[in-house]
Fold each of these.
Amino acid sequence: MTTTKTYTLITGGTTGIGYELAKIFAEEAHNLILVARTEADLQQAKTDLEGAGVDIITIVKDLFEPNAAFELYEEIRSQHLTVDILVNNAGQGEYGLFADTDIKRELAIIQLNISSLTILTKLFLQDMLERGEGKILNLSSIASKTPGPWQAVYHGTKAFVQSFTEAVRSEVKEHNIIITALLPGATDTDFFHKAGMESSKAVQDESKLSDPAQVARDGYDALMNGDDKVISGLKNKLTVTASNLMSDQKAADTMKKQQEPVTPKK
């Protein structure tokens, strides 16, 4: 038998936007299941959030691995836990010209950003449909709205997430299931370090980076309001509007200039 408690499952819930989402959900009295790759990070997040008075379960799982999302779902089922809100936050990028970057790293990013997200969405969505209710928040990006030279694979994965989220939302909207996409822009997190992107023009001015706490609040509010998507921040809304007025080629060329290194690589 499942427990009477319900849980919000957040992947990548120990840092950045995922951690800020965990804080908000905890403050709003949601029990949490936090998923990340390292036990130490999970225990630190749990310690930080315990003051909210909610139940916090941590699970170590590396969603870069092909079977990890299936294993995560089965582990949660074996503990008879009910996930009423799924937050697919975990995601990474790889910076560089596509001809030069590591294909194994990029395939791992596709696994994390697309495959694991798709698996978790399908499995938990099926349970939500059986219960007749549920919510899913997928971390998309304004990168989903334009081709991204110097981050070609990352932008491609987010284009998938955005299209996938809107399609599945349409399929289930009459079944009391809410699926929302959160589209941040460049945000003050560890994303750029992990992507090896510190030299990019796009991240040189830290004052222009979005606050992850505000991004998380925008995502939480949009999910609770039942919105299909939210672009976080006025600057990012204007960026998407401008790119929508360009041809794909023009948008790609513009993004190439924005994301190239301060000193272009040979």
Amino acid sequence: MTSRNAAATRQRILEHARRQFAQHGYAAITVKGVADAAGVSPNLITRYFGGKDGLFLAATQVEIPVSTSFDGDRSTLGPRLAASIVQRWFGAPGEDPLLVLQRASGERPEAAEALAAFLDAHSLEPLHRYLRDSGLDDADARSRAAAIDAFVLGVSTRRRVLRSELGDPADLQAWLSTTIQRLADG
């Protein structure tokens, strides 16, 4: 097998794993089930990822380009963040590594720790810095960032993890936009 085919096979396995972990959580997923869905031998998952735990860790590597949401004035933060959030939530249903971590955080302490660390580093702290740099004092910036972070995580948990309907993307974006802006403005 060439390295190009190995890379493509590894990626295909990860896509199926993300989808299954996002839809069913950690406990319900088997290496064999992911291998069957990806059209590979379970031995390949062991070879590439070391087993189910390694596959889970690889499937939950999260990257969110939040910096683009912070380009601009604080008076338009709500619309920018809401657009980014809605795009992520509706973009690749069932394959979002952040959703995988959210769903698994109740089952696996390491998933909860990874989710908290990710949100601190890629959501809460950048938002805190942005709000502080926009003219708020440090304590006010921190509390507003914490409120926005908690609001978005709560909506995400309610609508994505508990499997409620996300609703109409435009309506959701408008509501998120208004609420995030209110929290940013204090």
Amino acid sequence: MAHPFQFGFQDAASPVMEELLYFHDHTLMVVLLISVFVLYIIMGMVTTKLTNKFILDSQEIEIVWTLLPALILVFIALPSLRILYLTDEINQPWLTIKTIGHQWYWSYEYTDYNSFSFDSYMIPSQDLLPGQFRLLETDHRMVVPVESPVRMLISADDVLHSWAIPSLGIKVDAVPGRLNQMGLMINRSGVFYGQCSEICGANHSFMPIVVEAVPQEHFKSWSTLMLKNT
């Protein structure tokens, strides 16, 4: 969960988000080094007249400033591609959950384990309990087991939506008539909040996402209870 006046990302709760945080710091350091180097050259040219024929008209310099940006891009692209394939990889999922976006709520279908489904609506401000977050709490949370690979199948019933949770490093478009897939594994217990990240209509800001990660024993008890109530 984000904090007031927070700078940077939320604390990572999944391996993918940990990799994204590392990549962010890696890229930021590259940008910082480039900025310092360019600033040094500019200040040198302004203050000490760091200009001569070798710098202004040199085939060697032209080769360097052509190849160097290409090498920097490769240096950034390699870890980026690694994370891209990591987010797409799903190895023997323990559970499959289908998420469908509607105007303006989410519905969840558990098909692999005690097949059942439910809708998740935002709790109105006047019905919130002490400690609950305005515009983020839902009447039914999506519950998943900790440290278990989960396959998310995401689609929409009417218009474009986007299922996004910042602390898990997940943002998948929900497209009508199309089924998008994303792997999810949460490495610690807790409650994680997200919102629809696609402008989907008048109540776009009123369809939050709440994912609760619990131990497998608690998940089995919860799923059994949900099955009895359906």
Amino acid sequence: MTWLPNLLTLSRIVMLLPVMGLLAETDSADYRWAFALFLAAGLTDLVDGWAARRLNCVSNVGAFLDPLADKIMSNVLLVFLACRYPAWIPLWMVLLLLAREFAVQGFRSMAPCLGVMIRTERLSKLKTLFQLIAAGAVIAGLGWESLSTIAAPVALTSLILALASGYISMTTIFIRNADLWSRRPLDMESR
């Protein structure tokens, strides 16, 4: 059973493909199925970490895959929605979120070469949550026309909150770790 948490994490990435395929259609029933798959993928995010701790099988693979699956799910889905449904998701907001993602990830990838591990900020986790709420609101609004008047402002507000929490967390990470720019890299093993 030690493989279960990683399988759940991988399923989150795999479920994204049919979600986007269903969203490329024009029938509200397809959007409803997309929403159901989206919720199932979100549920795996809750269950995989719990299962890893419960089964005592926390692994390096899981520690790598879980945040990767979160980034793929939130960012790829928002890019897709912004390109397919620009009235719902402004592309410029998504591009600002992606720019922040690249900046933070680049900085984080430099840190281990300097002997430092940068923890994920709570605001960074909130950013991902707001991104997923925005995506979920759009999908729900597409699937149920009666929800569209509520879903559109929820999506926009969630994107604004994602940008705010994302850029505040990025600034915090950069300020707390400003000394990394002056450190000398560790000698690395070649393989």
